[in-house]
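lol ok so funny story. i was supposed to be doing the assay writeup but got distracted and ended up predicting the structure for this chain instead. priorities right. anyway since i did it might as well share w the group, maybe its usefull for someone
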Amino acid sequence: MSGSDIQRADAVYAKLLARAGEAWVEPRLERTARLLEFLDDPQHTYRVVHVTGTNGKTSTARIIESLIRAHGLRTGLFTSPHLVRFTERILIDGEPIADDAVADAWDEIEPFLPLVDAELAADGQNPLTFFELLTALAFVACADAPVDVLVLEVGMGGAWDSTNTADGDVAVITPVDMDHASRLGSTREEIAEVKAGIIKPGAHVVSARQEPGVAAVLRRVAAEKGATIAFEGDEFAVTGDVLAVGGQLVTIRGLAGEYDEEYLPLYGRHQGDNAALAVAAVESLIGGGAQRIAGDVRTQGFAEVASPGRLQLIGTEPTVIVDAAHNPHGARALVSALREAFDFDEWGVVLGVMADKDIAGLIEALKPVATHLFATQSDSERSAPADEVADAAEELGLRPTVHANIAEAMDAAREWAEEGERRAIVVAGSIVLGGEAIALARVEEWKA
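and the output, tada:
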């Protein structure tokens, strides 16, 4: 990788950032589809596993990708957002996309942008957005690689998300809960309706456990599309999990058979559930749910799983964990995992939250482990001010301290942890904040 390649890729990212950002979402598919039509529909040149839901999408997608790659197939993985550098969003064979591949894919796309933007303007619509273009770039790069299978994470919702221009052979639905209510709906059932939009005619659908109303929506849409559907708890499940060094041993009842005590290098019972969902997805892809995943394949696939920013250890003196929990459902899973997998008496919670999130609900979910809350904010313009996070914590009976940025918050939290025994730190509330913490740990060379 040369300096010129890095510069070319960074120039592409700068052009993407000049577009309407990720917080700006329009419920439209036709213009992403129009751009892809100019590019000969690269998203139709490989098989697709499409992943939606409220929490657990990225971890589930990463486990699916690793299991597919262990079969000897070439894989692409598209997730969002990134933690440190934007190339993390597109993986080819488990590695961030090369800078020259980013630039080459952009060179294919760029000539058609004025045409599509002009059509949008004539129709009274805004130009193509950051995420619409990033999706197209991922599709082109995966076609150029070329990959055999793309594991594709939805950006927001499903039905009108730009990723839904692809046709998923398998639709994967992680737990559906309240999030992005202003865009997706004010009830879980309304949100489920949008997320069920990724189900394509004749596809295989696998779903995590869902509330009855959500499950009913998913069953109805699957029936309307002539798709098969399997639910965690009914057709597949985790039947055992034991804490192990660096992760856990999980026993999974899949669609095609039982898999005993597989080592999964991820913490948290919810990651075991994500692994069961991933197994069902891969079984559906490779054999319609009727073919077991071979022993050596699943052992390799599980062992090579990594999920950055999800219960990730970034420091040991003191212990610092980063987790992407950014809504109450994710925070409850985090609290359970901290209690199950780690042996500390007190946790300092470094918390920064996006302004459009349920700040009070998130703090309420974290309260059981929050000995001290260090309120802060990320560099993102979408971040809620640290004072607002602190005010919400005080209203819930906590006594937080306020810190202008992640560096100041981590200095205070690490000092607090070193003053007592059996204390540790968890950074949560925002994927962006988690990325800033990871970058800080690298610069300051924390032991991990």
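The mean pLDDT is 94. Residues 43-94+131-303 form a domain with the UDP-N-acetylmuramoyl-L-alanine:D-glutamate ligase fold (CATH 3.40.1190.10).
back to the writeup now i swear
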